[in-house]
Fold each of these.
Amino acid sequence: MRSTTSRPERGASQVDVTAFGADPTGRADSAPAVAAALRYAGTLRGPVEIVFAGGTYQLYPEQAEVRELYVSNTVGADQRYRDKRIGLLVEDMSDVTVDGRGARLVYHGLQTAFAAIRSANVTFTNFSVDYAVPKVIDATVAAAGVTGGRAWRVLSLPEGTRYRIDGTHITWLGETSPAGGRPYWSGVDGLAYTQIHDPAVQRTWRGDNPLFTGVAAVTDLGAGRIRIDYASATPPADAGLVYQMRLIERLHPGAFIWESRNVVMRAMNLHHLQEFGVVGQFSEDITIDRVNFAPDPASGRSSSSFADHVNLSGVKGKVTITGCIFDGPHDDPINVHGTYLEVTGKPEPAALTLAYKHLETAGFPQFYPGDQVRFIDKRSMTPLPGPPATVTAVDGPSGTDHTRPLTTMTVTFDRPVPDDVAAGGTVTENLTYAPEVLVSGNVFRNVPTRGVLVTTPKPVLITGNRFDGMSMASVFISADASSWYESGAVTDVTIRGNTFTRPAGPVILVQPTNEVPAEVHHGISVEDNTFDIGSDVTVADVKGVRGFRFTGNVVRRPDGPERPLFVFHDSSGIVIAGDDR
């Protein structure tokens, strides 16, 4: 193997993956060569550029890097899935640019596409990511009718979709591993979850799956077409709709940023992210600029991610998401949050035992020495009296080691814990790992859920975006210590100069999980936006807020029976002025 570097004009060492054997023709597996190039780049003093020649690179998981990792909102502490395969890994490096120069990276099987772990000043740019066989089945009802007293549908599948007909059932298959000779994954009929996409009107929503109810016969017509006959004579009314079906276990993040600083994703096409989206976890300063989270039009697919597009859990500094397209996720395009840990005991006056409470999140550190921590009453979701405490020591999960506790930890503080901190009734919030957020100039479409979820006490600006056809709230602010345990309360949110068209639910939803009336959130301003809505849509449904301003907005909706434009619960300081309806 030949390993070479050259010295570009700007002074960075340059590592070309093709010099390590990566194949831009797309015929050979480039995973071992890409791994070798990244490992070699890690031996060089930065700045370093890892570059691809233009072309297509196939990356299989068998020779990808493997790390034991625990990732927010995935499979928690489940030991069956502790090892993650990573196709393109930047680890313990600084001043690194991965420049694809237009390359197309095609991933196979189950693996994370790219990751930055314990690294600083990392840029990923100028390449596209897709998976040869996504773990999402997009089945279009190409034709439907009734013949001889039996209803039928013909399903059309994107090229590369693999399946086997077993009597009246369909077994969906991942690719066959060239090493193990078995499919990377499999599932039957409607799998565990379905959402429905209507390409004619460009809408996507969650719904029931009728494709496999009352099946009398299944016939393979060839060329990616399957006929399903039913015992019923009821004519199907869903011709043209696409049923997007998947399993629900999130084994790998699609991309991963962990314990890293100043990570940039710029000018990329992420056509599909296998099993989850981009997860940023306990990192600082993340920028996502001009990234298209959207299916490749040539693929015939309408889904682009197994779950969220971007999920940032415990990030500090600033989150900047600008100029992106979010099209076809299976959950929220953007979710920026922390994690509440529940108090389970007080072993010493200045120490608490804490626990992860959601099964999908565990195994990684939630606090570091020096972090500022606030204690929150679960019933009211408001802070307990007194200043934040400072962490002095942590005994808990490392994020990379299953021999340590994965769901619990002991945290020691710089002062005795207040007497009103109670096991089962109090959660903790890390105020240090809470970011300032800018979401600007993005497009959201074909989204079955919410558009932007944000829970952080730092300033948030959501501006100049276009939200079209959202099936739930376009902007959702929660603070949840009863289900997902996503923290924390906002204090300064501005929603300015956005366009909201064809929303199906409250456009702006503020819904903390407090059980007793309380003003949880503060300082939300909605200004100079345009709302084009139906007569049955509420502009803002707001609970538990002190200080909500709605000014200078344009609200357009047709005449007819109307729902209230605004609904307020347990809130004060409401200003509604200067809007044109």
Amino acid sequence: MFQEEYDVIVVGAGHAGSEAAAAAANMGASTLLVTMNLQTIGQMSCNPAMGGIAKGQIVREIDALGGLSGIVSDKSAIQFKMLNKSKGPAMWSPRTQNDRMRFAEEWRLQLEAIPTLDFYQEMVSGLLIENGKIAGVKSSLGLPIRGKSVVLTNGTFLNGLIHIGEKQFGGGRAGERNSTGITEQLIDLGFESGRMKTGTPPRVDGRSLDYSKMSVQPGDIDVSKFSYTNKSSKLTQQRDCHMTYTSPLVHDLLREGFDRSPMFNGRIQSVGPRYCPSIEDKIDRFADKDRHQMFIEPEGWDTVEVYVNGFSTSLPEDVQFKALRSVVGFEKVKFFRPGYAIEYDYFPPTQLKHTLETKIVENLYFAGQINGTTGYEEAASQGLMAGINAVRKIREEESFILRRDDAYIGVLIDDLITKGTEEPYRMFTSRAEYRTLLRQDNADMRLTPRAYDLGIVNAERLKLVERKEEETENMLQFLRNTSYDFPEMNELLNEKNTAEVTQNDKYFKVFSRPQIGLSDIRRFDDVENYIQEHDLDEDILEQVEVQVKYSGYIEKEKNNADKLNRLEDIKIPSGFDFSNIQSISIEARQKLKAVQPVTISQASRISGVNPSDISVLLVHMGR
């Protein structure tokens, strides 16, 4: 039935599990993906969308590292938007609206195309551990499946409990049972666990909505895509979303059910996502607001099912229905299913190494919501990193770790294992101190060469990146070396209401002005001729414009990163006894002992560890 022993066993086939299995198998490792239901591989449990602010950068990084989320998103997209285009490029974030059924289908097709990946449908109820090291998993039917490493990506299924009003029942997702046994075993092994909550809104019948009363939210005219590869293409047609609002009447109707809300009557004890609150939480926390946005998102190209973004709730069904019928455009709404909240087990991620391997059990990895994160993209990136590191560990190769100035993925993992989280963690651009370096437009340049070294991407992809780097630098040199004719340039500058020039100068200098865009300097024949002669595509031209306009900021961040990265080179010996250093604070000793940082830089980011504590540590390290 199974191989005698797998290199990697991945438990769970959501976004984290799918990326973990794909990464391990694409590296040539014999891999088994175990899930309770093979029909829900890559299921979008909540909103039918990928990317968004900071999350879009993560999807681009996954793609640059040879992951599949970008390709799957592109192939199932029904709308594309680049968010924050009015701000600087560090804030630009791609987002797709997706066909939920095609998304899951595409994930399965992508995974089934990998020869070294096997599949098995059953619940994993326990782990096989021998001498403190993982040896495989045990199925609910009692079957032992041996593996050299195991990646747990259980999502919301570990002892999942669904709440709708005063009703509650076990489940990992609507219509699916929860997973039991693993939490209890891990606690017995010495792991600390906790509970978190997330929620989802009602799904409704789009035929019952009056879209004429709502505002249209179309996709971009100038469409892009996630993947840097040619395995997907840009959309040529798109589906609109719509927007409407709640009202004081809607809020009053919702408040009528607060006494039966599991959030307010004590049934739900765990913490939900701060930045994606339920509608009842928004009404309670922001009582001064008389309305909240609701985005009406189609679930696919052909289905009439609609996702009501902004109306996540666990209130009783009758309260949900009555309140939603008072929303403009929803007067005749019909439900497909009500919203609900779900509580589930997670394990504080300070119990992990930077590779996402657990500190207690060797070759056991955690990825996704089991680590306290929320969101498809955060989960997928962890799965990718866990899959890569599981393979490298059993091959006795160096760990693959991304620093905070390498990728948003590096920020995410470092935040989790250094600071931990007591509420569902969501990525934002503000969490990244080097966000000017970590743009969505340069993820391939930052990460694809490293993916090539890992054996995940082929030489063809590396050549594409090398061409992009070379052609970008060549055009930058062209702009630095080529002069414009100043009378002709002044015609443009007058149009743009910016100061005239008094002599011929280089294109780079005038292009640096915030009022002047690439489309403006393409009016000049020598610039346009250069672009046409070198057959430069939009990705290269975008890269050129960003580097011209933000070169000062980029250089400053690089210098700051280089200074701080010197502390990354100062290693702390494994098993170092922080309790013996009496000259640092008691809190710092306790935090350092709990986290066990591997570098001085990581130690400096732990909450409660002060600069004076770091100075003492540097002395003890002989620096």
